[in-house]
């Protein structure tokens, strides 16, 4: 009997035979008491008695696959004689059970550097039916295009594998729905949330906004030369950045706001005549393990200020001149130099 057989269905049973006649012949049938089955006995016009098994309640193969009954035929003699037959009822499967997922929501955490082809996780559903009614096929029933490019679902095993590059900075989490459908067409659904975990795969980057470059050499201390913005696409400690300047130069870095620094002139005076420009190397390091670094270079040119007086060489000239020297004769040539440049270094004599 298939388990979907409706109650009230009758199943004819074989007829008993008794060679005796009259009251000594077959009189009735009896059935082992059972809540699921009953017995109906009918009599033909010829006086033959026939037994039918009647299903009283719904069968459930998942609770009980087989039922054993005993049919007894009794005569009307004295003493009463009887014969028995065993009835074995095999309950065959109907697709009356939906698949059931082991979890309503699968929550998964994956590192963003998980290699392509790796097994991310597995969804699993069970079905109490048997045969093809218990064979489950898996598929994504609701998934975004971005997630579909990163994950594939094995329809037979429920394995979800990584098929694209994960990037925390591009997508921090993905959500999808998974369907499990049995061979009879019944289905179940479960939700999936995949959280992508950050790894320190991005080095800090520095961007420079020049404010005063070139800078006059007589600039006052704390003059702002440039603003430096530092960024790291990672999160947490991996995105915490510290910036400093390499070398001993007449400049300093001062934090301005989050991820922003000001490049300032130190109290030490600039001297163009000593250094016409300065090559600055800025280095930013994040808090990852191991840490990643980024660098930027800036060339600061120093503008001349008229901070140098002309200098004669030598400082004193002694000239001996004959008293009869003709008018217009060059007696001596004096020379002065100025360390400044441009008009500041152009010397006039008087």
Automatic annotation (TrEMBL):
Cadherin domain segment(s): 3-101, 102-206, 215-312, 313-350
Any single Pfam family the record assigns to this protein: Cadherin
Keywords carried by this UniProt record: Calcium, Cell adhesion, Cell membrane, Glycoprotein, Membrane, Repeat, Signal, Transmembrane, Transmembrane helix
GO biological process: homophilic cell adhesion via plasma membrane adhesion molecules
Record membrane topology: Single-pass type I membrane protein
Entry's Gene Ontology cellular component terms: plasma membrane
The protein, known as: PCDGH protein
UniProt lineage: Eukaryota, Metazoa, Chordata, Craniata, Vertebrata
């Amino acid at each position: 009997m298939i388990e979907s057989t409706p109650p009230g269905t009758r199943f004819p049973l074989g007829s008993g035979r008794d060679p005796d006649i009259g009251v000594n012949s077959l009189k009735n049938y009896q059935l082992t008491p059972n809540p699921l089955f009953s017995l109906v006995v009918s009599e033909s016009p010829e006086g033959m008695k026939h037994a039918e098994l009647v299903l009283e309640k719904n069968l459930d193969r998942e609770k009980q696959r087989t039922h054993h009954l005993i049919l007894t035929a009794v005569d009307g003699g004295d003493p009463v004689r009887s014969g028995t037959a065993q009835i074995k009822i095999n309950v065959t499967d109907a697709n009356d059970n939906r698949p059931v997922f082991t979890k309503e929501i699968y929550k998964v955490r994956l590192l963003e550097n998980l290699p392509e082809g790796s097994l991310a996780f597995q969804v699993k559903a069970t079905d109490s039916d048997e045969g093809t009614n218990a064979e489950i096929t898996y598929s994504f029933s609701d998934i975004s295009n971005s997630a579909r490019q990163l994950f594939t679902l094995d329809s037979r095993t429920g394995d979800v594998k990584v098929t694209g590059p994960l990037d925390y900075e591009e997508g921090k989490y993905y959500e999808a729905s998974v369907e499990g459908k049995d061979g009879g067409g019944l289905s179940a659904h479960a939700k999936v949330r995949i959280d992508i975990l950050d790894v320190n795969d991005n080095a800090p980057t520095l961007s420079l906004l020049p404010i005063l470059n070139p800078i006059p050499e007589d600039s006052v201390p704390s003059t702002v030369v440039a603003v430096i913005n530092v960024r790291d696409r990672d999160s947490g400690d991996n995105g915490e950045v510290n910036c400093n300047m390499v070398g001993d130069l007449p400049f300093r870095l001062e934090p301005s706001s989050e991820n922003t620094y000001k490049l300032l002139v130190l109290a030490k005076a600039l001297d163009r005549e000593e250094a016409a420009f300065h090559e600055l190397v800025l280095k930013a390091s994040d808090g990852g393990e191991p840490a990643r670094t980024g660098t930027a270079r800036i060339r600061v040119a120093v503008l001349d200020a008229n901070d140098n007086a002309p200098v004669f060489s030598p400082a004193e000239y002694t000239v001996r001149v004959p008293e009869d020297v003709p008018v217009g004769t060059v007696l001596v040539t004096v020379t002065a130099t100025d360390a400044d440049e441009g008009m500041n270094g152009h010397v006039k004599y008087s």
